[in-house]
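Researcher: We plan to redesign the surface later, but first we want a full-length starting point. Tokens attached.
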């Protein structure tokens, strides 16, 4: 009788260990899978962010180039305007004998 009682206790202990291991494995999977998924999404998103940053830098560089071209064009127009005003002022002074 004693052997049968010990085997029942051992059997119960084995079942509880198997149950505890199964619970631990289930818990580990429940925690690990979402963590790994989150990590993978972060890595993918960071790659996309770098692509977006590269695209935006190129866009802003083109934008800056357009503004630089407009700035040069306006400076040239202003220079020509100043030269015309100076010529008119010199002509007016000459006609009025102010100089």
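Model: Full-length starting sequence:
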């Amino acid at each position: 009788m004693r052997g049968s009682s010990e085997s029942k206790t051992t059997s119960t202990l084995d079942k509880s260990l198997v149950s505890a291991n199964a619970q631990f494995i289930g818990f580990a999977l429940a925690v690990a899978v979402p963590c790994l998924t989150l990590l993978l999404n972060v890595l993918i998103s960071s790659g996309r962010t770098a692509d977006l940053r590269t695209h935006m830098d190129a866009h802003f560089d083109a934008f800056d180039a357009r503004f630089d071209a407009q700035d040069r064009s306006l400076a040239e127009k202003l220079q020509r305007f100043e030269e015309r005003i100076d010529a008119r002022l010199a002509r007016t002074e000459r006609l009025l004998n102010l100089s």
